[in-house]
């Protein structure tokens, strides 16, 4: 048993599993952080919409630049997210329809356009396809040059880390800073937008900044893990956390814990779980991470100490 | 045969048996999606159907695995449809349960169910891919739809279920309208709002599962949302709206399927959605009721009337006019000469405007509660909104006031 554990956590682990797990955690936490505020502002589905339009953005970037390097892809995806938010606003005003319908109309149309362009243009030479966009490829983000734990202090080996890892770390730091620096403003404008406006917080700008932070998290995470995890992590960890506590600070803390647990357990179950049942194949890590976050949320719905509505809403 | 020739012959159902089958099937699907979607849209729950459609995936996977375990090849469409219906029903019940029993709002419940069911479905699909019979299962086609090699039995299944959904809409149209517009009132008249809500979502569920094969589960929600949003531009009445919505859905499905039959590289689901979006764009721009063009024209007409009126009032007070647009409007309608002096016509019109203004001012004093005062836009001549008796009374008061000040 101990031997098994040692091999499991040995050189092979560092090479094959350490980086995907770390990337999974970083992506999950980067999405869960802004998700807390989206949830409380009843904008949980913005994350859903944004992650659908990342695909057309990436396809458009590929059609313009002809390459699949990271920077144009991320710019394209970011631009698509902003286009989508603007389009939703236009449809909402022009058609005087509810936000949900406007959102559904815009993101399905953009996603359809992305798929169509992908199919009718010659993208066979490069590896972008719909499956990849949905599922990501967490399992493939291995650390070739790692020879064991000692590689963590070896600059030569560190230089060959999958580029998604430092990128996501950077994004996570950025989003963390945004939330820490604007904590008070975010908190007040989330719970009482009118009061926030009255004391001079520019709620419109702040709301847009939150959407931009969401888009950045979605795009960076998407590149590594695909859109399913992105949507799941925007909603499930913050929603589970909401059922645990009545304090925003603790809620954010819980959501980080839940996101981390989902990423670790999801990856381990996906990679090693089938082996326990005698199957030599792994299952989708992205799908498993989403599944675990759902199980955590189900448990929170059943047993979370603050799961019930209180006050006026409880009677409604 | 060129693309266009083929498109036209396919449009007329003459491009072969299979593409005709697919086109008719997609048209029927669009028809039922459009009519069911209209109610969901009016109830403002469009995105619940997104949760429903994504929640079908685990059902498809499990149904396939169960059918394989019983020795079939697992691709039998009715079996897959039943599986997807069961799992999306569970998803729907979970959305309801989370919203009702916990403090979480509906959008959070939708996002959670959508992503978790979809993620679990993907896990199942990766398991199926490792099964010996699963390699050619083609279950990923349910993500984005595929009509290549559709069987007659599959088309019949879709047609029957589509007709069933349409009949369902027809039977429940009254309680669903009531619940969509005023759930409290509906409850007081004895309608069970919760059951009607469930029925509405049940319709979305039927449309989703029959649409899996053609449009795919990611985009089927578009067929439930875009047609009603489009229809809303053309009418303010429920009956016509449902009709238009069904029509938009049906035509989008039909044209989209034909386009994708004409050019094999065009995937069916996305092109159907984009055709529907085309209808939305045309409506949003050109609908006479709420379209952008009509609104812009209305705005411009109003602006011109305001400028004309203010210009005439300025003339009557002998004030100079500096505003370019006002000058242009007055000059073009022959109220003033090139040098800005009022013509005979202009003097008559300005006197009339100033009398009208004075009458309105008096009307506000002596008839403050009259409904015409509330509806007055600052431009309409008083004769059009008040009776001649009222105006005579106003004129009498005006004369009195003038007599008093003289």
Explain this structure:
The complex is a heterodimer of chains A (316) and B (406). By secondary structure, chain A is an all-alpha fold. Chain A has a single domain (2-139, 163-304), classed as ABC transporter involved in vitamin B12 uptake, BtuC. Chain A is 76% helix and 0% strand. Chain A contains 15 helices and no strands. Chain A has helices spanning 2-8, 11-40, 44-65, 70-95, 99-120, 130-135, 155-158, 164-181, 183-191, 193-198, 203-225, 227-242, 248-276, 285-303, 312-315. In chain A, helix 2 runs parallel beside helix 8 (164-181), helix 3 packs across helix 4 and helix 12 packs across helix 13. The termini of chain A are far apart. In chain A, 50% of the residues are buried. Chain B is mainly α and 406 residues long. Chain B folds into 2 domains: 3-288, ABC transporter involved in vitamin B12 uptake, BtuC; 293-405, no CATH class. Chain B has helices spanning 3-11, 17-42, 48-54, 56-69, 77-101, 106-130, 141-144, 152-181, 183-188, 193-211, 220-232, 238-262, 268-286, 292-316, 324-332, 344-366, 371-375, 388-405. The longest helix of chain B is centred in the middle third of the chain and has 30 residues, at 152-181. Chains A and B meet through helix 3, helix 4, helix 5, helix 6 and helix 12 of A and helix 5, helix 6, helix 11 and helix 13 of B. Chain B: The chain crosses the membrane at residues 20-42, 51-70, 76-97, 109-128, 148-172, 203-226, 238-259, 271-289. Chain B: This is Metal ABC transporter permease. Chain B: Keywords: Cell membrane, Membrane, Transmembrane, Transmembrane helix, Transport. Chain B: InterPro entries: ABC_BtuC-like, ABC_TroCD. Chain B: It is found in: Cell membrane.
What would the keywords be for this entry?
heterodimer; A: 316 residues; mainly alpha; ABC transporter involved in vitamin B12 uptake, BtuC; globular; B: 406 residues; 2 domains; 18 helices; 0% strand; elongated
């Amino acid at each position: 048993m101990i031997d098994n554990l040692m091999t499991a956590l040995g050189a092979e682990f560092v090479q094959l599993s350490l980086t995907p797990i770390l990337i999974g955690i970083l992506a999950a936490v980067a999405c869960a952080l802004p998700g807390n505020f989206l949830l409380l502002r009843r904008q949980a589905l913005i994350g859903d919409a944004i992650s659908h339009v990342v695909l057309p953005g990436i396809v458009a970037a590929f059609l313009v630049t002809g390459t699949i390097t990271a920077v144009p892809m991320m710019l394209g995806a970011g631009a698509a997210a902003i286009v989508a938010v603007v389009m939703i606003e236009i449809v909402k005003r022009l058609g005087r329809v509810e936000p949900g319908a406007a959102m559904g109309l815009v993101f399905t149309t953009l996603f359809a356009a992305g798929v169509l362009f992908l199919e009718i243009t010659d993208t066979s030479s490069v590896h972008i396809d719909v499956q990849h966009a949905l599922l990501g490829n967490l399992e493939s983000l291995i650390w070739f040059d790692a020879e064991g734990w000692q590689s963590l202090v070896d600059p030569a080996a560190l230089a060959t880390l999958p580029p998604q890892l430092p990128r996501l770390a950077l994004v996570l730091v950025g989003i963390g800073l945004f939330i820490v620096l604007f904590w008070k403003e975010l908190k007040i404008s989330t719970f009482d937008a009118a009061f926030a406006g009255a004391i001079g917080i520019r709620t419109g700008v702040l709301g847009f900044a939150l959407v931009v932070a969401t888009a950045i998290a979605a795009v960076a995470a998407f590149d590594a893990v695909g859109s399913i995890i992105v949507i799941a992590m925007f909603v499930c960890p913050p929603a589970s956390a909401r059922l645990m506590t009545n304090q925003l600070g603790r809620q954010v803390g819980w959501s980080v814990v839940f996101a981390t647990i989902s990423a670790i357990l999801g990856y381990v179950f996906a990679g090693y779980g089938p082996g326990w049942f005698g199957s030599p194949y792994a299952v989708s890590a992205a799908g498993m991470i989403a599944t675990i976050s759902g199980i955590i949320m189900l448990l929170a719905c059943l047993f979370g100490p603050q799961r019930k509505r209180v006050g006026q809403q409880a009677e409604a | 045969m060129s693309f266009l020739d083929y498109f036209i012959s396919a449009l007329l159902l003459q491009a072969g048996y299979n593409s005709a089958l697919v086109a008719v099937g997609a048209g029927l699907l669009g028809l039922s999606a459009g009519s069911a979607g209209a109610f969901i849209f009016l109830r403002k729950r469009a995105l619940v159907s997104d949760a429903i459609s994504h929640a079908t995936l685990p059902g498809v996977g499990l149904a396939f695995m169960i059918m394989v375990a019983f020795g079939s090849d697992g691709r039998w469409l009715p079996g897959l449809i039943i599986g997807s219906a069961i799992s999306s029903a569970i998803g729907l019940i979970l959305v309801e349960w989370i919203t009702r029993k916990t403090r979480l709002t509906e959008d959070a419940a939708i996002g959670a169910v959508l992503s978790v069911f979809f993620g679990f479905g993907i896990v199942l699909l990766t398991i199926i891919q490792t099964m010996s019979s699963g390699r050619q299962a083609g279950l990923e086609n349910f993500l984005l739809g595929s009509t290549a090699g559709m069987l007659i039995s599959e088309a019949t299944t879709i047609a029957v279920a589509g007709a069933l959904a349409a009949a369902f809409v027809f039977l429940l149209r009254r309680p669903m309208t009531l619940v969509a517009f005023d759930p409290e009132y509906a409850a007081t008249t004895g309608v069970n709002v919760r059951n009607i809500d469930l029925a509405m979502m049940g319709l979305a569920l039927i449309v989703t599962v029959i649409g899996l094969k053609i449009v795919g589960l990611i985009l089927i929600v578009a067929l439930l949302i875009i047609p009603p949003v489009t229809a809303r531009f053309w009418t303010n009445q429920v009956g016509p709206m449902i009709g238009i919505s069904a029509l938009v859905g049906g035509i989008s499905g039909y044209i989209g399927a034909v386009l994708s039959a004409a050019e094999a590289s065009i995937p069916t689901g996305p092109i159907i959605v984009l055709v529907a979006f085309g209808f939305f764009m045309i409506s949003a721009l050109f609908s006479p009721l709420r379209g952008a063009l009509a609104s812009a024209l209305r705005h411009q007409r109003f602006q011109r009337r305001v400028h004309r009126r203010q210009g005439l009032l300025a003339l009557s007070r002998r004030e100079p006019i500096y505003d370019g647009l006002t000058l242009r409007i007055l000059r073009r309608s022959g109220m003033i000469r090139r040098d800005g002096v009022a013509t005979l016509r202009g003097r008559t019109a300005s006197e009339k405007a100033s009398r009208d203004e004075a009458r309105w001012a008096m009307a506000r004093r002596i008839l403050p509660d009259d409904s015409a005062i509330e509806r007055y836009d600052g431009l309409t001549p008083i004769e059009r909104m008040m009776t001649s008796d009222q105006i005579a009374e106003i004129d009498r008061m005006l004369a009195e006031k003038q007599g008093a000040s003289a």
